Amino acid sequence: MNEIRSAPAATETNENKLRQLETELRASQRQIVNLLELINKQQEQLNEHSSSIVRLDRILMEILTGRTWRTLRAAGEIVKRFVPSRSASGSTKLADVRSYLVCDEPKSGDRRPRSGNITVRGWCLAERRIDLVHIEVEGLPRIETSASIARPDVRKLHPDLDRTGRSGFQVEFDSHRLPNGTYTITVRAFSAGTALRETETSVLIDHERGFSSDYDRWIKEFERPEEALIELKLPSLQIRPLISVLMPVYNTEPDELKAAIESVLNQTYGNWELCIADDCSSRAQVREILREFARRDERIKLDLRSEQGGISAACNSASALAGGDYITFLDHDDAFAPHALAYVCEAVNARPESDLIYSDEDKIDPLGTRFEPFLKPDWSPDLLLSENYICHLLVLRRDLASAIGSFNSDCDGSQDYDLILRAISKAKQIHHIPHVLYHWRAGVASTASTIENKQYALDAARLALERHCVRSGTAAGVQHGLVQGRWRVRYPIPPDAGVSIIIPSGGKADVLRTNLTALFAKTSYADYEVVVVDNSKGNSIERLLSDFQPAPRALRYIDWRNQPFNYSVINNAAARQCESPFLLFLNDDTSVITSEWLEALVELIARPEVGAVGAKLLYPDGRIQHAGVVMGLYDNCGHAFKGLDAEVSHYFDFSDVIRNVSAVTGACLMTKSDVFIQVGGFDEDQFAVAFNDIDLCLKIGALGYRVLYTPHAQLYHHEAFSKTSKDLVPHPQEVASMRAKWEGVIASDPYYNPNLTRNDENFSLRTRA
Hints:
By secondary structure, the chain is of the alpha/beta class. It has four domains: 28-85; 92-205, Immunoglobulins (Immunoglobulin-like, Sandwich), CATH 2.60.40; 217-473, Alpha-Beta Complex (Spore Coat Polysaccharide Biosynthesis Protein SpsA, Chain A); 499-747, Spore Coat Polysaccharide Biosynthesis Protein SpsA, Chain A (Alpha-Beta Complex). It is built from 21 helices and 33 strands. Strands 22, 23, 24, 25, 26, 27, 28, 31, 32 and 33 form a ten-stranded mixed beta sheet that branches. Strands 11, 12, 13, 14, 15, 16, 17, 18 and 19 form a nine-stranded mixed beta sheet that branches. Helix 12 packs parallel to helix 13 (455-472). The N and C termini lie far apart (69 Å).
């Protein structure tokens, strides 16, 4: 009897111990989370030091390869002592036939260690059909393949030769059979048994330190530790919403369908429901698989439609099953990352006001290898009108999804793009999760393989964009962009849209002559004036302008001779003497390429929400000099895609589409006159020589205006012509002022993913210091 009476007390004691253990466990989890976050902060500090070293090295290289320094070669070839050889690793022509052969991976000169399955990827073209590609690696059997992979970027570059759009090749070899060391890879292209061209690259095999690809390395260095962190955070999250996953299904490959469903079942966050609508699949096995999974887990809901209606109709049927607080989407052959919904839950807790949430994504091949990660910027409304960069993973708050209505069947193929465009018009808060949460399967007929496989998707995307323009009331039109699958939204230019083009000159008359000659000859826009500010110490500029009289457009001269050089003072003084609604600050060492360059700038700056617009600038040899400014590069800022080939698309075509940026270069920068006055113009005190343009853009952005980059205004920029070697090195005080004033955006540019490198301008993956 006494034992029975003591049972409640024992139970209470055990419960108290259990609560105490749970409290201690939560405290331990918090400590581990704090330690992991501290480690991440320390790693960030190491990366910042690495960025500083790279920045200094970059400045040194710009000086040593600059125009002024190159003139010293005759005095003893000084450059050769300092500048390492940078000869291009071109391919060798073996037959008298016009041909091309490029090895994209591994890149020549890449000394990063590799191991495991190594990918060799590239493209080849010739006047004669290339029917065979040989890849030879020292110590391994020769690999034979064909050039049959879609390469829309190559087709754009060589439309006369690339008639099929399939010039790419890709193979893998197992490096485990090779001892550590550097190995030459020889690639040859053949036509009818004749070798047309060959190229060589090399790879460093190191089985202790190496990775099979840059992305494989990034996954191990960054993604895996972050996954461990979210697992620890998950139990402490207070808001635990029910997330409805909508999956339309139609005749899916059985293994791919199973993998898709398993990716939901394997989520570390468990408060979900999977709402599947089968669009009357003719494969009996599809419904058998669905029924079996529904029996296994009661969170899976099915609607087995009796008639086929298309993907939008199936999505609507799946939506009708959903009762969650948030809705997300999974294609029937794709997969969620294991922690996808956990990161969504974390985002909901951190930003409960968010209506629309999206994440980064990548692709997955039939063997399960992940590749081509799309590490996205934060909310970028103009980029979205150029390309559907949001895509996957997309999460909508339930009431937002209800407000925008169902999927539109006439947008099948781009029904998600149409849904997003309707959602952004009603969403109050949009949040980006900078983690890869979605794996897009690149099958034979998938749009993840190539957009050319689904022309109907392009037609549907254009329809969705046109409807968005009508809803927005902008009277804008939609055109195909510079790259297939990308778009250009054209905005009407209002009347009285005059432009004052302000060109400071330091006295190099030949440089200014080139500028003015191209400007007057090629500019199709009529409503502009040119204002030249003479900051020289002689009469050459004044005499030059007399040669252009009468000028095709108003040409004014402002005498600022024999004054100390202060870029901000010069341009502010000129702006005060202009009455046009729009100001264009233009370097004298630029030269117009495209005739409608001014229209491309004006139609964007005339929009009420836009405060600054910049152009695409090229070096004379066709390489990119500027395609927007990225904050945080080299521990300060840098030009996007600088030094890369302008004829080749880069990083999801970002160099070839209108997009949101934090800043653009003052070499060609258009702004509104009233906005320029509102922000106080260029900062004459802190930024007399450097960073004045960046500072101006950041001030404009801080007031809520958009800063845009457009590739549809193109000019050459002879960058070194108007600068001495001294000019290429910013004054330490200006560097310090920039960091002090704009520390936040330097640390985190909203239009540049934090998982991309800060030590290069090519949008490659970040690496550990």
